Amino acid sequence: MFIVLLKLMNYMKKISVIESWGVAWGVFKKNWLIVLYAAFVPALISFLLEIISKKAVTWLDAGVIVLVLGTLYFVLRFFFSMLLNLGTLRIQLGVMNGNKMKYSDLFNPKGLYWKFIGGTILYSLVVLGGLILLIIPGIYFAIRYLFVPYLIIDKNMNIGDAFAKSTEMTNGKKWSILAFLIVTIIFSLLGLIVLFVGVVFTSAIAYLAIIHMYQTLLNEGVGDKNEAKTVQQEDVVQPVSTESNNIAQEDGQMAVENSN
User: Fold this and answer.
1) How far apart are CA 207 and CA 131, in angstroms?
2) Which of 13-17, 94-98, 202-206, 244-248 has the highest mean pLDDT?
3) Model's pTM, two decimal places?
4) How far apart are CA 90 and CA 209, in angstroms?
5) Cβ-count burial of 173 within 10 angstroms (0-12 exposed, 13-18 middle, 19+ buried)?
6) pLDDT tens string 173-226
7) Exposure class string for 86-106: b at 16+ Cβ within 10 A, else e
């Protein structure tokens, strides 16, 4: 166990959990009301829907009616849950980006609804397929495509581009991301010490910390591209400058010869 903790700490140096939680805590203090609203309201609605579904089964005795209404209820609940998940992530991304978010944003998909559902379903199927195979491939795919929903909402990417970008962002960093997530889950569970209410607070901050990790990796990719572009420009400018100097030297030699 001690060796595992040491390895986790080593991977955490690449992606700082302390820094992400520090930033997340600062954002949470400024936006605590809407962040808790986005975390608590969907959970409360889900809890109430679960109670309603159990009551409905006891009210209806006819098997066919239960089957039809149960299927319809499951479908409607799924699409409504997707709306709430999208709204929650939108608010969390918004406050982490420094935007002023509204309570109505929880129910406002802003044209991202079907794309978000498609990306979420595809992500879930890929991870599930990996888990069925040998479990480890499922964990690998879960980390590799972790940021697909974030990119769809934050950058309005289509599904294919979001999967490709998430692959690029997590390349060579999967162990670090896994260590980050494990430690973040442990921090979140510490909220159980302060009854259930503590879990609500720590979970809300944990989601913000994960978003900070997402932003860090996203900005790293942008920085690498800008650096590569600068190097390419320097490589182009240098030969041109050398060639210009050579031409100037040749012109000078010709001028000297003509004067002689």
Assistant:
1) 24
2) 94-98
3) 0.80
4) 15
5) middle
6) 999 999 999 988 888 888 777 656 677 788 899 999 999 999 999 998 765 555
7) bbbbbbbbbbbeeeebeeebb
